[in-house]
Design brief:
Structural class: alpha+beta
Number of strands: 4
CATH topology of the largest domain: Gyrase A, domain 2
CATH architecture of the largest domain: 2-Layer Sandwich
CATH superfamily of the largest domain: General secretion pathway protein M, EpsM
Radius of gyration: 49 Å
Order of helices and strands: HHHEEHEE
Number of helices: 4
Distance between the termini: 141 Å
Strand content: 15-25%
Shape: rod-shaped
């Protein structure tokens, strides 16, 4: 007769394999659960970034400013000087000196020279002379220089152009 090998503990081998299998299965389940949590946190983090980007102000574009040329600077300074004319004082001085029969047709400021070119018209030449004399003594004007005088025919009237200098 031949020898028969009889194993009286077959369950012990199965128990070891079952424990290793269950451990591997638990490890796979735990890593899957951890991956799912990491994926959810990443999605929450992405949503938070989107909300913060929507609330944050847009970045300002970089603007390169070139300094103005000499001509541009002079033009800007001339405009500022023209805007800073003492208009109320100048117009009050003109109105205070103007007789009723004299019409002021044009006022041209020359801010760099502190002068005002005035074109006035009247039916009488002596009214224009009285107007010029009153302007020469009316503040803020300090000097009057006649530029031209023209006699117009229809209707008969006299037109005078004069430069007025003022004090600042």
């Amino acid at each position: 007769m031949s020898r028969v090998r009889i194993d009286f503990a077959p369950a012990a081998r199965w128990r070891l394999g079952l424990a290793v299998g269950l451990s591997a299965l638990a490890l796979i389940a735990a890593s899957g659960f951890a991956a799912r949590i990491a994926w959810q946190r990443d999605a929450q983090l992405q949503a938070l970034h989107v909300r913060l980007a929507a609330r944050a102000p847009a970045p300002q574009p970089v603007v390169h400013i070139t300094p103005p040329s000499h001509e541009q600077a002079e033009a800007v300074n001339a405009a500022i000087t023209l805007l800073n004319l003492p208009w109320p004082a100048l117009l009050d001085g003109l109105n205070a000196a103007r007789p009723k029969d004299v019409a002021v047709l044009r006022i041209e400021p020359r801010a760099s020279q502190r002068s005002l070119r005035v074109v006035a018209e009247s039916e009488r030449a002596d009214a224009l002379f009285d107007f010029a004399d009153a302007l020469a003594h009316q503040p803020p004007f300090v000097r009057l220089r006649p530029v031209s005088q023209v006699r117009l025919d229809s209707p008969a009237r006299v037109q005078a152009t004069m430069d007025l200098e003022w004090l600042p």
